[in-house]
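> call design_seq(struct)
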């Protein structure tokens, strides 16, 4: 009798654990979609704001300043995310960074820096390098959706262990 209660409690808690894990995975997927949307819209805001006079004391001005002071790695991530499935060469990435307002004058060889960042992003699995006759091209690796996990019946697991 006590064993049955323990098994029921164990099964209920394990099911709750699996449910929470699935919720967390869905939240990660949703966050990736939001980050992709932000990366897509940011260059548009930058481009459109260049056509008008933005008051220095505005929230938009603060946003634009933050974008200009973004680190090069995050800026490259943003460029690749906003490109979607389009593969980009490092010179195109450099042009996009400049369009974003990123100041590359502090780098002696911006393309070498971009290449190093792309190599690190590739090693971490964020970027995919595609060899091409005109030089390597890069694209953002989208987060894969995973199937929600189904918890096994605890009584089946316990029986198998005991055998």
């Amino acid at each position: 009798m006590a064993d049955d209660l323990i098994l029921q409690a164990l099964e209920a808690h394990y099911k709750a654990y699996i449910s929470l894990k699935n919720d967390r995975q869905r939240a990660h997927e949703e966050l990736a979609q939001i980050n992709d949307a932000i990366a897509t819209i940011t260059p548009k805001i930058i481009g459109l704001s260049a056509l008008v006079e933005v008051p220095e004391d505005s929230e938009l001005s603060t946003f634009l300043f933050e974008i200009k002071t973004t680190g090069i790695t995050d800026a490259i991530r943003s460029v690749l995310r906003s490109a979607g499935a389009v593969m980009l060469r490092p010179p195109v990435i450099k042009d996009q960074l400049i369009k974003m307002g990123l100041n590359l004058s502090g780098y002696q060889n911006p393309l070498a820096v971009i290449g190093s960042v792309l190599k690190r992003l590739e090693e971490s699995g964020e970027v995919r390098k595609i060899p091409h006759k005109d030089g390597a091209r890069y694209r953002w690796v989208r987060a894969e959706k995973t199937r929600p996990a189904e918890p096994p019946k605890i009584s089946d697991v316990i029986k198998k262990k005991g055998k």
